[in-house]
From TrEMBL:
Swiss-Prot/TrEMBL keywords: Metal-binding
One matching Pfam family: Cupin_2
Keyword Metal-binding carried by entry: yes
Source organism (scientific name): Jiella sonneratiae
Domain Cupin type-2: 48-115
PANTHER family tied to this protein: CUPIN TYPE-2 DOMAIN-CONTAINING PROTEIN, OXALATE-BINDING PROTEIN
Protein name: Cupin domain-containing protein
Record SUPFAM superfamilies: RmlC-like cupins
Length: 122
């Protein structure tokens, strides 16, 4: 966890793009509010851009809840045994223990916000 646990303002350009573990094919994210960047303890807030065919592998969280908010593009969201197309303005809520994945199946970039709380599965 960062030693800089304090309120503040950050610009999206300040955070580099990175590919987190189990994300593949130019599935890039900026960890805007994250233990490593702000010292946050309860919130992981990222903006992600996946190029066509990029994806995060199917997974579930023990205690974490997640919200995906699609800003642009389209892709395929898997929630449990169901797969649905997601596109701009769709908001997806994932409960703990639910297997899920997202993949860019569209023609252009898929950009979305992901909010996870708490930061870690314990």
């Amino acid at each position: 966890m960062s030693d800089d646990y304090k309120s503040g303002i950050r610009n999206i350009a300040e955070e580099p793009w990175r590919q987190f573990p189990n994300h593949f094919g130019s599935a890039l994210s900026k960890a805007l509010v994250h233990p490593e960047t702000t010292g946050s303890r309860q919130i992981d807030y990222r903006i992600s851009t996946y190029q066509p065919m990029a994806y995060v592998e199917r997974h579930a969280h023990k205690v974490q809840e997640q919200v995906y908010h699609v800003l642009d593009g389209e892709g395929l969201m898997e929630i449990g045994d169901e797969k649905r197309v997601v596109r701009r303005n769709d908001v997806v809520f994932i409960t703990p223990g639910t297997f899920h994945s997202i993949e860019n199946t569209g023609l252009g970039d898929l950009t979305f916000i992901v909010v996870t709380t708490p930061v870690k599965d314990e």
